[in-house]
Amino acid sequence: MLIAEDLLRLLTDPVTGKRRVDAMHLDTALGGAVLLDLLLANKVALEGEGRKARVVTIDPTATGDHTLDGALEMLAQRGRIKPKDAVVRIAKKLRPQLYASLAAQGVVSREDRKVWVAFTQTTWPATDPSWHQGIDQTLREVLLHDQDPDQRTGALVALASSAGAIKKLVDKPDRKRAQRRAERISEGNWASEAVREAIRAAQVAASAAAVAAAAAAGASGS
After folding, report:
1. Relative to the CA of 24, which of 33, 89, 95, 152 has its CA 20 to 30 Å away?
2. At what angle do helices 23-40 and 193-221 cross, to 10 degrees?
3. What is the torsion angle, in degrees rounded to the nearest 10, for the CA atoms of residue 201, residue 202, residue 203 and residue 208?
4. What is the pTM of this model?
5. What spatial distance separates the first Cα and last Cα of the chain, rounded to whole Å?
6. d(Cα 76, Cα 74) in Å, to the nearest integer?
7. In sequence order, what are the residues at sequence separation of 6 or more whose Cβ sits closer than 8 angstroms to the Cβ of residue 141?
């Protein structure tokens, strides 16, 4: 299963099937997760550092995964691209693809219900709570008891933090402690520089989108 798929499961309430964070932050975190999946699959690489960092395609052959192959084709066509821009482009129309993939794997179910007359609300509740129970326990150990994360758990924590979701994953009294720990994990030595750069790209993309949304709201209200 993709890191992006696990992240979406984590950030979707298993009972209600609703997302746990706003769409903008969720989508940019998912874009970062797919970029990370491609990095770990050795399909793309990061060249340069800091502001000079660029995502480059090193193996354009298909992975067999519809989501990854769509992102890979787009990146191959773009050539060298800033990590933030890669995240933003990957994130477009990504969430429905990932939900469809999770549904095909039988880990979530699609539920549609009418809201008002002409609007349908779609939710994606979990079909089996056992995965959430397991990941919740793992996250408590990592966030609250300083257990060192493996690469996958570290990535989930860092990307969830970029989406502002850590407070949704622990009880209220533990939120500040968990957030501080998540921030340390985001910059920790559990991951390669390329992995950390993918996570930073998701954070930068989310911040840029938030600024743009605030500016648009201010302009419409003036």
Report:
1. 152
2. 160
3. 90
4. 0.90
5. 46
6. 5
7. 147
**What is the set of domains in the chain, with CATH numbers?**
3-111+121-221 (1.10.3630.10)
Residue reference for tokens 């990146």: 75
- Of 62, 66, 65, 71, nearest to 90 (Cα)? 71
Q: Which two tokens stand for residue 166?
A: 């850590």
- Sequence-ordered strand ranges (E) for the chain: 44-47, 54-57, 111-115, 119-123
Cα 217 versus chain centre, distance: 25
How far is residue 198's CA from residue 30's CA, in Å, rounded to a whole number? 11
* Contact status, residue 154 vs residue 191, Cβ threshold 8 Å: yes
Please name the residue that has the structure tokens 């992240």: 7
Structure tokens at 75: 């990146």
Span 175-191, pLDDT tens digits: 999 999 999 998 877 77
Type of residue numbered 6: D
Tokens representing 68? Answer: 């990854």
Closest CA to 123 of 23, 17, 27, 19: 17
Which distant-in-sequence residues (6+ apart) come within 8 Å of 75 by Cβ? 38, 44, 55, 57, 81, 86, 89, 90
- Please give the helix or strand (H or E) that residue 113 lies within, else none: strand 111-115
Q: Are 32 and 201 in contact (CB under 8 A)?
A: yes
127-140, pLDDT tens digit by residue?
988 999 999 999 99
